[in-house]
Amino acid sequence: MRKILLSAFLLSFGLMNAQTFVSTTPQNKKVILEEFTGVNCVFCPQGHVIANNIKNANPDNVFLINIHVGNFATPSGGQPDFRTSFGTAIANQSGLTGYPAGTVNRTVFSGLSMSAGGTAMGRGNWTNAANQILGQSSYLNVAVQGQINAQTNQLTVTVETYYTGNSPVGTNKLNVALLQNNTFGPQTGGNMGNNYNHMHRLVHMLTGQWGTDITTTTAGSFNSQTFTYTIPAAYNGVPVEIGELELVAFVTETQQRIVSGNGAKPTYTGLTANDAKVKSIDAIDQQCVTTLGPKFTLQNMGQNNLTNLPITYSINGSTPQIFNWTGSITPLSSTQVTLPAVSYSLQANNSVEISIPGDDNNTNNSGTTSFTKAIETQFTNITVKITTDQYGSETTWNIKNSNGTTVASGGPYQDLGAAGTTAQPDVNLTLPNECYTFTINDSFGDGMFSSAYGFGGYQVLANGTLISGINGGNFTSVDTRKFGVNTNLGVEDFANELVKFYPNPSNGLITISLPQIAKITISDLSGKVVYTSTLNDGESTINLNNLSSGIYLINFVGDSLNKTDKIILK
Q1: What is the pTM assigned to this prediction?
Q2: Concatenated DSSP letters for 313-365?
Q3: What CATH number does the domain located at 276-371 have?
Q4: pLDDT (tens digit, 9 = 90+) per residue, 45-102?
Q5: Fewer CB in 10 Å around end: N or C, the chain?
């Protein structure tokens, strides 16, 4: 990082001779709202709405910084890690006592703080505090500009300040925050599952924890600082999208009270003329139908607007289909494209390939994704079992067929009034051959699985036997599972479908899930038996560390199953 500080010598010649972009006209303060949040915070989405409403009412004078910090921001179960190394110190000096919390210009507002002398406030007080700041005159103006080289990911930021009055302190601190928008991920309480849109997310402080010094702080003082920073490919494993970055610069007295600030979206250099990108292919749930319309995100990485494109796609290597897309995507923007549904042969494991024509950059013109076949049952008599936690009124569920028609539903249920669980009456159905989606919702966003409120959950059974994988309870707002009813399956076909083993490839330890007692036989490709065992139904783990690396055949034989598959040992 490099800083260039214009000396006071420049001021002696007058700002009229300098190429500046900061205003020299006295202005009111601008709001910097730092919101302390986390992906597991139930009420944080309400805070996001309040903050965005303040921003929308004052788009040029309010700037939001969402800081993921604290226990609610600690990821679990594969959640993304949105935390930074800066958040804890910023939160600790605020005096927050709960989440979501927010500071408005790191200022103490009488009667609004969470704790005596603290700057943190509950979400209900942010609007009041912001209006107070917007009505106050500022003794300095702040302006910021940024530029990103798309080829090198180098960010150059210039911040200018001009003092229209005297600062009460001899040294102020300049802070520059780098934020990322439109990051889709989980959010408890957001009612969006894993598709909650995280905005204004702090990813880095270009000026360090508490900023850099401004030592000339009297009326008429002008200061310019320039910073260079190479943007990484990801922060904590969360990919960076350079087209979604924004800058917020602000000036503080010490490391607390923010005087004013400003924000900007960076401009871009280094873009080639034409560069379309298959940014990502939407994840595909388990399927039990043989028509599918894949969805993917198309991004324009070129400097020219993208208006039309032939898109080629296929499923399981079938005859490629061509879809002629038309629209308008500006540089570094993206759009979701839904491809026309095509028929395909459904396999246990399936793949989708999408490609676009060659252009100035051919390294990003294709993508693949995979999906599996949903479990099927030959039985039409289906039972839904629901066990609610203390708050049964939060739980609802439904089963829909492939047309989206609800064929069964349940809830909300009664609350217990005390910690514990309640087994609800079974719901028995007769379902014809079809593909079904079971969805269960928790309106509070904490699922049905809690050490504090009881371990609830759900099960979907066929002919009294659990349909493999259609059970759970440890989720946030929604859990969705697919299954098929196919009476053309034989008893052995159904049992074979329920046999699972993982991981594959394996280092030697393999977990096996069986619907019934079965004999396990493993042989090498020459037919030599190298392992045998009899396992009970349910999950078991076997150890094959004594075997050499290679490909083996694993055979399962039970009363109504006979299945052989390949397993790879690394």
Answers
A1: 0.65
A2: EEETT-S-EEEEEEEEE-TT-EEEEEPPPEE----SEEEEEEE----S-GGGS
A3: 2.60.40.10
A4: 999 999 999 999 999 999 999 999 999 999 987 899 999 999 999 999 999 999 999 9
A5: C
